[in-house]
Prior knowledge:
Number of helices of chain A: 10
Strand content of chain A: 15-25%
Low-confidence stretches of chain A: none
Radius of gyration of chain A: 19 Å
CATH class of the largest domain in chain A: Alpha Beta
Helix content of chain A: 25-40%
CATH superfamily of the largest domain in chain A: NAD(P)-binding Rossmann-like Domain
Oligomer: homodimer
Largest interface: A-B, 34 and 34 residues
Shape of chain A: globular
CATH architecture of the largest domain in chain A: 3-Layer(aba) Sandwich
Number of domains of chain A: 2
Mean pLDDT of chain A: 97
Amino acid sequence: MIILDGKAVSEKVLENVKETVQNLSRQPHLAVILAGDNTASKIYVNNKQKAAEKVGIKSTIIELPAITSEDNLLSIIKGLNADDDVTGILVQLPLPEHINKNKVMNTISPQKDVDGFTPENVGKLAIGLEPYFYPATPQGIIMLLDEYKIPIEGADAVILGRSNIVGKPMAQMLLRRNATVTICHSYTKDLETKIKTADIVISAVGKKIVRCKMDRNNSCVVDVGIFRNDNGKLTGDVEFDLVSPSCGYITPVPGGVGPMTIASLMYNASKVY
Amino acid sequence: MIILDGKAVSEKVLENVKETVQNLSRQPHLAVILAGDNTASKIYVNNKQKAAEKVGIKSTIIELPAITSEDNLLSIIKGLNADDDVTGILVQLPLPEHINKNKVMNTISPQKDVDGFTPENVGKLAIGLEPYFYPATPQGIIMLLDEYKIPIEGADAVILGRSNIVGKPMAQMLLRRNATVTICHSYTKDLETKIKTADIVISAVGKKIVRCKMDRNNSCVVDVGIFRNDNGKLTGDVEFDLVSPSCGYITPVPGGVGPMTIASLMYNASKVY
């Protein structure tokens, strides 16, 4: 069994991004909007800024109070769309409840949408066209699988969770690479059988849901979940000690998908349209 | 085993559409663009026009020679977008090879896109928002399943084929209804096992690919394929005589999905935004 070292691979990706950025004729500039004072969001934004600095991408954080109006947020985004110096725009989620997330996503220019969440980029991904940006987490997972040369074409891939951020774009991206994709969720029956018999399992649920031995000993288990258990320790969706001896490849939590997501986001932020 | 009577259900849907149209304050008007002289396309367009007439929807067919330029086609679409009398626009596929289909789809106003193929409508479907129009074939299939009260929530649904017209939107629509969805294609291994163990099989491949008995005797097999066999007889993807005794519900070819697609399209064409 091989542990997929997201930390190490992400460093490699960031090195490549840094080199790309150095060779660009202009410096990419990522604008990050943070509305409200969600503690986790602040940490995420901070990590993104640190990563950007590391690879030579300029970043600006625009902090807005939780009571900021939707109109104000939209007009800030429009300003950033029009600003030629800004090459990427990222709105940290979740947004305050009174703000319509879809309206916000609809306003970001698809050419600056480094998260790949705008309808145009989502639609292109769904149709099989090239979006300007692929969503960071699934893209980071594909980078990790590719680094370890894990076969995707023809593989039976089972995705747990159907969010717009991970599950659904992950399905599209694996389908593009010719995997047979099954999307599971809270209504899925016989979940254990579906997990066990898969070649690739991607779990993005946020609770301890993968708790069975795998049938195929070269299968690959990717854990996107990250949360604190009752003892306050960071853990993921996968019962690591139980699952890891039965599979071929597995990601740790932390140190697996997390760092890959940041590296993948920096890869996106280095693209200038 | 019950044969899903697409012919009868489609008549019922068309009756409802007719009533809806009669109660509208303005008559819907469907513009159909037919470029080139593909014989099959002509038959399809003709059938659509007949159906429109039946339900009281005005239709105009715009025939263009195969050598028509992309620019000309795009400017015709823009004219239709701007024409307040036209409520729906349909570009019959396939288009002549020198015309970029994606550019064409990108030009149709999403509010008049009765086929549901424009990026905005596809993107909304993918994100889980309400598109202006759902693609006709998968929508017609859902109508048929609902008419026979076939449970979708929690069902294991296996889709064969991943086209933008049927397979991919079908996956999204079944997922919305809380089915567990597996998308299969030419790279899929152990296809027979996947088919057999499903609750719902939707086959949209265009060759005789479903040729095994089903394991679950209340399963439902939907045949989207339609082509002529070596004897010139219309047939579908499913080996009907072999499969039908082993399942609970099955669509015939012809008389199954075909008429439902037309009825579903008319349902779309009756919507005025």
